[in-house]
Amino acid sequence: MTASGPGDVPWALLEGVTRDGKPVARLYDQWEPGLAVRISGEALGLILRDRDSGRETVWYLDETRAVRGCHIEALEGMSLDTAMGPIAASLAELAVHSLAGTPRPPPLFLPEAATCLASQIAAAWSVRHFAGMTLRSVAEARSSDGLAASGPALDTSAVRRLLETRPGAAARVLLSPFDDTPLRAQITIAVEGFSVHRFHAEAQDAAFYLAWPERETAQPSGLAPVFFCPAARLVIADHPDAVMLPGRLLGWYLTHPAHVRSIAEAASFDAREYGLGHASALASPPSPVEAGLSAEANGPSPMQSRSAAWDFLHETGLAAPVPDSAMPSPSRLGPTGVMGRLRGIFKRRHD
Are residues 136 and 66 in the same domain? Predict the structure, then answer.
């Protein structure tokens, strides 16, 4: 895997490039070649940039430097396997370890400047390998008895509590949706319009994510976060772009090799670092819907049935209750397959 550029405009990257059998002599006025990434012996990704807007696109070139398409899902004369090359093996490794569990270096990374290429390849790979992912709306998650049918068992009440989390410092310290263990966010990732906190439950070796649109972190409106747990193959969200989050995260991991070390060195939760009330979000009371479900079942409420970790937080004064958060309006987004929505998005954008 080799790359050339950036720096001064590398016009030499256009040498020998043909489109529809004709040499590419020039680009539109504002477009410039930016970076060439050798995907395999049969495929080259040439990234072009609009110097005015910063937009990027990718030309996929074959071994003769003929342009075979400008999106990985719309190539002529080049198979998807060729366009992905050995990157597919890296994405498989990243999906198992960086995305879902404990990161370890994959066979190869792409340069950070190749984000456009990485995002396309990761999205195409995700469409084909996350077919079993389930998408649920926030309203459904608040009223459903069970949220996931695969992977480590999620505590429904704990997940509902996470959906009441709002952006801010409190969102970085939460209780695990598996066993109520206090967790601290390992890293915060910015990916194409989302700010994402990554958490890791060590006992289950399972990562999960809370994400908000960037505008929500700047001007909070009470929107529930996107909840994504790869091991449980579950996304809970009202935001229409949430179905793209698995692929976007994979693309980010593919271009940021330092994430392996950053996550490995991330500090775990230490109660001594927090003063009274700093972790108050951990003890958010049940929502009206959750309270109603508990009453109907004639069972203990989530606040009455606490784990040892939960009791520890109360004994140390770290989990003082806070008022109920305002519930966002119910979503129109019904349960559907994530991959079906992804395919629909690709079709609308590239028809």
Answer: no
* Alpha-carbon span 123 to 100, nearest angstrom: 16
Question: Measured between alpha carbons, how far is 177 from 174 in angstroms, rounded to an integer?
Answer: 9
Query: Is the backbone of residue 20 left (phi > 0), alpha (psi -120 to 50) or beta?
Result: left
Domain that holds residue 176: 130-186+208-244+258-337
Strands 173-175 and 22-23: unpaired
169 and 272 share a domain? yes
Q: How far apart are CA 224 and CA 204, in angstroms?
A: 25
**CA terminus-to-terminus distance, the chain:** 31
Which is nearest to 38 in space by CA: 15, 4, 66, 74? Answer: 4
Q: Could you give the CA distance from residue 312 to residue 306 in angstroms, rounded to a whole number?
A: 10
Is residue 257 within 8 A of residue 234, CB to CB? The reply is no
CA distances from 187 to 242, 267, 281, 295, 349 (A): 19, 10, 19, 37, 31
- The pLDDT tens digits of the residues spanning 114-133 come to 999 999 999 999 999 988 88
Residues 206-217: tens digit of each pLDDT:
999 999 988 887
